[in-house]
């Protein structure tokens, strides 16, 4: 069907005709079909960021929304989120063997298996365009969840929808709409310059040459990788490679980006640069990001909301600011005076960690001791030279949450 | 279909670019494999110098046989280089990459690697076919068409067989050793005249180890047209292709991924 076809010009009319003549269930299914069909209208590139005609792209978006409606109707539960997960479970069966040769021989004769529950009934939602942190220690089930959401793994039970698609049933259709980066699984060809992989991805995602070139140029500028594109990947630093990896995953302008430990092994500067580019793409293109990381700094810098998992279960979910407010209540104060302090210097409700002649270090919990009397007490004790108030790092807070769930 | 072909062509182009990064290594492997095959064929030359034929097969038949098998094997394992390492890809969780992209997993995985040495097999196969044509003195355009068809059937059965064997990894774990044995068996048996075998052995060569579909049948078809043989090689290619795709995708549901650190070469 060409771009000039009446159906291409008026998809809304076609859909309304269908909607008036069919029951809802059939309408939604038909809408998905028609909208996705219209999305295949010939490409007319308006700028470097779009790969389909406006009509086609709009129809594809509409198709996806309709697909979500169909899912909502079918499941009666899934809202219009980018990601909806309900009671997701994944159990792996692993072989167990006692140590040594006798153990191996016994396992050969009578192998023993054990069920490992990697994901235990996880439920959560992510809105379109949201930056959601998904963190947990090793073996918590983060990567398994992401692999289920990309369609790599089938869950043992539960429901999930990403942009209205059931990942393990509609893997290929979903892959056109999402991007993924796994820190331990590079997608760039090791011996070739990144730009060669970019061109291969162009074919994989069916981008035409003109829009692919414009897109590469746009991403190269956004990620500051212009100088790196023609260098063999094996010669790039880890930080440079990771920026190219994320750029590759954004070539087809996905609506959701799943990042699994993208900052693993990066130094502080490279991490900061990567975070900035992810944030920039989120602001520029509204791409939703589900980010797993070991680094609390990634979450603190990038995400508004965080989900903490441990042993395959969600142990905390809320805004990062709430997490800080709830858990960052212990303040440590370092104070220095211009004059000598009284030797018995103390303040009510404040634990003195160290008291010197000209200064002191103390700690208090704002839930028990309000801040104001502490500051007033400090000011009243003498002429202040310097005051530093510090909080535990988000990392310490998360460790405390892990420890609490271990107990 | 067209979009899949464009995608596979792009993969092959990328494989070629990757191989060209190490030109000397590439050329060494190509020449080395050609010499290796030539030395192997010397034994048949010595054999036929003493015996005129073996159960109706002469030196020219062997040249046709080596032509089809080496060309088919070379083209198959060059274009679908991961066909010989699918088992380790599955066992080490490397299928994640192919599963996260919007392309047919099996086709994408198979075509994502080229073996440089296979280009040597392919070139040797063409030389062998050329020699067979010269010695038989019967070349015509139809023979070239039959040779192309025979090689395609040979590729289809060989790659399908390798996929079938390695798909067992989904059920029984790493099958690298089994794959090596199966690979050696099918290559070895495909390079012998089919007339050497009868009864159960022959049945095995048409079923469990389908070497007959890779070597003898297409080679005989190349030498002289036979409608029954054409039907046999087409049916063999189709059946094994269907079986391999079916079994692979059944197994893929059991895929368990992995957390090993990986590199895309």
Structural features:
heterodimer; A: 407 residues; alpha/beta; Rossmann fold; 4-stranded antiparallel beta sheet; 42% helix; B: 265 residues; mainly alpha; 14 helices
Please characterize this protein's 3D structure.
The complex is a heterodimer of chains A (407) and B (265). Chain A has 407 residues and is α/β, with parallel strands linked by helices. Chain A has three domains: 6-75; 83-91 and 116-317, P-loop containing nucleotide triphosphate hydrolases (Rossmann fold, 3-Layer(aba) Sandwich), CATH 3.40.50.300; 329-391, Alpha-Beta Plaits (2-Layer Sandwich), CATH 3.30.70. In chain A, 42% of the residues lie in helices and 24% in strands. Chain A contains 15 helices and 13 strands. In chain A, strands 5-6-7-3-8-9 form a six-stranded mixed beta sheet, sandwiched between helices. A four-stranded antiparallel beta sheet of chain A has the order 11-12-10-13, with no helix packed on it. A three-stranded antiparallel beta sheet of chain A has the order 2-1-4. Chain A is globular and about 75 Å long. Chain B is mainly α and 265 residues long. In chain B, helix 8 (141-167) runs antiparallel to helix 10 and helix 8 runs parallel beside helix 14. At the A-B interface, helix 6, helix 7 and helix 8 of A face helix 1 and helix 5 of B.
Quick take:
The complex is a heterodimer of chains A (407) and B (265). Chain A is of the alpha/beta class and 407 residues long. Helices cover 42% and strands 24% of the residues of chain A.
Topology:
The complex is a heterodimer of chains A (407) and B (265).
Chain A: H1 6-9, H2 11-21, H3 24-38, H4 54-75, E1 83-96, H5 100-109, E2 112-126, E3 131-135, H6 142-150, E4 157-162, H7 171-175, E5 178-182, H8 194-204, H9 209-222, H10 238-249, E6 256-260, H11 268-285, E7 288-293, H12 296-302, E8 305-310, E9 313-319, H13 320-327, E10 330-337, E11 351-355, E12 359-365, H14 371-380, E13 384-390, H15 394-406
Parallel strand pairs in A: 3-7, 3-8, 5-6, 6-7
Antiparallel strand pairs in A: 1-2, 1-4, 8-9, 10-12, 10-13, 11-12
Helix pairs in contact in A: 2-3, 3-4, 8-10, 10-11
Chain B: H1 2-20, H2 23-50, H3 59-79, H4 86-91, H5 96-99, H6 105-110, H7 116-136, H8 141-167, H9 169-172, H10 176-190, H11 199-206, H12 211-214, H13 216-223, H14 227-252
Helix pairs in contact in B: 2-7, 3-7, 3-8, 3-13, 8-10, 8-13, 8-14, 13-14
